[in-house]
Amino acid sequence: MNDFINPASMAAGVALVSAPILIHLINRMRFKRIRWAAMEFLLKAQKRMRRKMIIEQLLLLFLRCLMVFLLGLLVGRFFGCSPDGVDKRQTMHVVILDDSPSMADGWTDNNASTTAFDQAKKVVTEQIAASAAQATTAQTMEVLRLSDLGSPISAGRLNATTIEELGTKLKAVGPSPVRVSVADGLKRAKELFAAQGTTDTAQVVHVVSDFRETDWQRDGEPIKQMIQELTAAKVKVHLTDVVHPFRKPDERKTLLSHDNVGITEFRAERAITARDQPVKFVLKVKNYGVSELKDQRFSIWLNGVENTSVSFATLPPNVEVEQQVLLTFHRAGSEDKPLDRFSLVMAKLEAPENGGIAVDNVRYALIEVRDRLPILIVEGRPNLRDKKEGDSFYLRRIFTGVLGGYQIDNALPGDLATKDLRPYVGVFLMNVGSVPDAGAANLEKYVREGGGVGVFLGPDVSPKDYNKNLYADGNGLFPVPLPERPSEPLTEEQKSAKLYNFQKKFLLRDPSAKQHPALRELYLDERGRPVRDDKFDNQLLFFTINQYWPVKRIGKWRDDRAVTELYCMPNEQPMSNFDTSVNQLHTMLTELFTDAELEKYKKVVLDEQSTGVRRLSLQNEPVFKLAAALDRMLSDQRGEGDATEAVLREFWANPKAGDARTLAMQIRDSAKYGDPIYLAKRLGRGRVTAFLSTGGEQWTDWPTGAGGGSYVPIISEMEKFLSGGGADDNLKVGETIEFRVDEANYLKTVKRAFVTHDPAKTGPKGGTADPAPVVDLKAQDMVPQEGKFVFRFTDDKQPGGYLFTLTTLKGQVGGANVPAEEPEYRGVAANVDTAREGDLRRATNDDIKTNSPNAELHSLDDATWLDKIKQKQTDLSESGWMFLLLLLLLIAEQALAVRLSYHASPSELESTAPSAAAAMHTSSNRTAAEPTPAA
User: Which of 289, 521, 813, 872 has the highest CB neighbour number within 10 Å of its CB?
Assistant: First the structure.
């Protein structure tokens, strides 16, 4: 448009439009006038029609000028042009190519299999690059794969050659197991534009992705922020969805997605185990589809050999289910094969699902196997270590006898300040009076790095020291602050009364505690299915806790989400303490039943249940009976099959009964639950348990009493919980693997090995695991951080087990004669992020548009938007109607020109000049009558 209105262009245009007029005038002037009698007749006839002819001549002249004018418009591309025109600067295109695992989602297209990633590569080369190459200005392109943002694929200036080279490079890559957010890709694109450092180049971002719901809902805000920053910098953003069924930009309904099955978790209950000891693994599977699946079998492979299998009779849609499997490990490594201490376990879906993605059908776990598991026991009274009166006597018998597979080391409280705790799978403090500051710091460091500490209290404990060094106002490893003194000892009469009152000695403070890792297995059967509480809780009846440290449920620890109260003592208050609150509840219910709507519940709720509770509160009975009566009245924790239960549940579900129900639950809980007795805490990567009485018989007969059958299972699950801190690590492929080492030994040589297994390579009968190639990472100057030195590894791009050997450099620490210490071996398993990638549900258009303001959304089957990157104007100069109009004008001009020519038809000549017509007619007849000359 600017060229069209340029003065020079305007002058040329006026000259062209004037050309028909000049030609017409020249044609009128080029003949010499000769007076001739015959022409006089014609001139007289012409004068008769002069006005008509002048009008027709002007019309012909107008048509010719209009044709020239329209041709000028076509050349100038002005007619109907967008007022913004086209950016004619050179352009830099950055393509963010999503290569996350979900891009392997496939379907059939024209009887050929294809995937979202295959289509994405075609979009990059055949649409974006090919269209940009048609522009009249220089176009460059950088392709960023989300899994490797640091290594863009550069196409340079786009032309046929560079596009072909780009296609060759992309052909060699496929979907990656690594998941990276689109927001990170947009951030990297912004950095590339900034590095360009010029405003003379237009900038365009293309996001080619599958646009899954999980990504655009969880990462929506970061994506939105980056797109806003890019568009504010005048960067054009295009979004292209490459998944079938194709997305319509104006679609408002939920888009169809393909079904998928994925292994969401495969985890051992502990990270380290002893040789020949069974280890329980939990396998969790989720059906992300909309249809129920039957008879899904998952094989379990141990070091590359199929070991066993797990079958799910049914997988309900969009539901996660789990099963457990026991594995025993016989390989513990040797001096010449130290890495054999790590065993790789793999779970794999036997028959791949119809559709979906395959990469989440396999999951790995890595477990370290030792000849025996080392445990450290720290005692406050080491002189009684081997006697029944000792604090650790029964604990030792469990680990060395009942359970087996453990090696016990002993230490004194003063040793904790200097002892290396890393080799131990658990540290137990048994009636330790106090822990010095340095020892507490060493224990806390051990726990934060994945260790486990179990604390049993006793009479020698100093609450002041525990609160200062171990609890540390909630910041330390101990879960609760201790009171000034323990509870008063029971009299013999009280012991006897409590022993045979048929009341559970430990109560679950919250039913959800049954799912805690320190108790979970006690309430599951051998197949991992929940069982009735009574099966295990019946063993909590016939023993007594004579004394304990009575912690009150007040203070900072109650709000600490890392602390869980597992078991508590039953309430021992006198019944008279609850008489007032029970009367208040009965009065509230009496007033409530004046409402006619609730009349049908009165007999059961008020006359039977509430009256019975009120009568019980006036008797001299143990208070736990009141709690049981309120349990029955509320019917929220019981299922005895009584006919009144349905009536009670219906009543308490009525909103009008809400206040009364709240009060009844408060009275019930207060009457039922006493002080905490068993607690757990998570700190960093590690775990802590605290039993607020003794581990031996000094304050309790639990280890040897009639109810001692519960002692071994609880201790066993406690140890598994404490030694399972490292097993919680569910590392995703691509996440940084990090190890912290002591400051004194910060300079290390590091070797890395990677072990994985592909059953497709060995066939269904199995074979050996792929060898673990060792890569020497040489000396590592580790990064100092918070008094530690950190080793970070980021090249974990494939699922499997990563093994590391860390050795101090000889002569680098402490002097030239210092030998290298014994190598440390670390291992970790990395897996695909199934929780994010396995769910193939697609984001709605509303979600995408909300989180991508000013970006344009395109589908795979819509190529009209590509004209925008060809840098062509969208005007009527390219319209077929424009050329049709020119054709019609040309036909009209030619017809009118013939009509106005000097060759008139006989009828027209006779009407306008009869004398001339007669003369012409006579001449014609004479010529026809003359004989033809002889040859």
Answer: 289
At 794, is the pLDDT very low, low, confident or very high (cuts 50, 70, 90)?
Answer: confident
What's the gap between Cα 680 and its chain centre? 29
Do residues 265 and 731 make contact, with C-beta atoms less than 8 angstroms apart? Answer: no
Question: What is the overall mean pLDDT for the chain?
Answer: 83
Residues 159, 208: contact at Cβ < 8 Å?
no
Instruction: Using the structure block, give the residue that is written with the tokens 């997305």.
Output: 247
Distance CA 701, CA 536 (A): 18
Tokens, residue 723: 């030694």
Q: Is 161 helix (H, G, I), strand (E, B) or coil?
A: helix
- Model's pTM, two decimal places? 0.75
- H runs (alpha helix) in 77-212: 116-122, 130-132, 160-171, 182-196
The Cα–Cα gap between 254 and 252 comes to: 7
Count helices and strands in the chain by DSSP H and E runs: 27, 32
Written as six digits, the tokens of 154 are: 């550069």
Which regions of 304-385 does DSSP assign to beta strands (E)? 305-315, 319-328, 342-349, 362-370, 373-379
CA pair distance 541, 624, nearest whole angstrom: 13
For residues 481 and 472, what is the distance between their CA atoms, to the nearest angstrom? 9
| pLDDT single digits (tens) 241-294 | 999 888 887 777 888 888 999 999 999 988 889 998 889 999 999 999 889 999
Cα–Cα nearest to 713, from 523, 543, 451, 534: 523
d(CA 349, CA 310): 10
Question: Which alpha helices (DSSP H) does 504-653 contain, by range?
Answer: 534-537, 579-592, 602, 611-617, 623-634, 644-652
Strand partners, 308: 300
DSSP 822-861: PPEEEEEEEE--HHHHS--PBPPHHHHHHTSTTPEEE-TT
pLDDT band at 475 (very low <50, low <70, confident <90, very high): very high
Taking the C-alpha atoms of residue 51 and residue 190, their distance in angstroms, rounded to an integer, is 72
Instruction: Tally Cβ neighbours within 10 Å of residue 456.
Output: 24
Instruction: State the burial class of residue 638 (Cβ atoms within 10 Å of its Cβ: 0-12, 13-18, 19+).
Output: middle
User: In 10 A of CB 489, how many CB atoms?
Assistant: 11
Cα–Cα distance for residue pair 732/752, rounded to 1 Å: 18
| Nearest of 33, 70, 204, 220 to residue 128 by alpha carbon | 204
Q: How far is CA 801 from CA 363, 733, 749, 752, 804, in A?
A: 11, 11, 20, 11, 10
Q: Computed from CA positions of residues 845, 236, 234, 222, in that sequence, does the dihedral angle turn out positive or negative?
A: positive
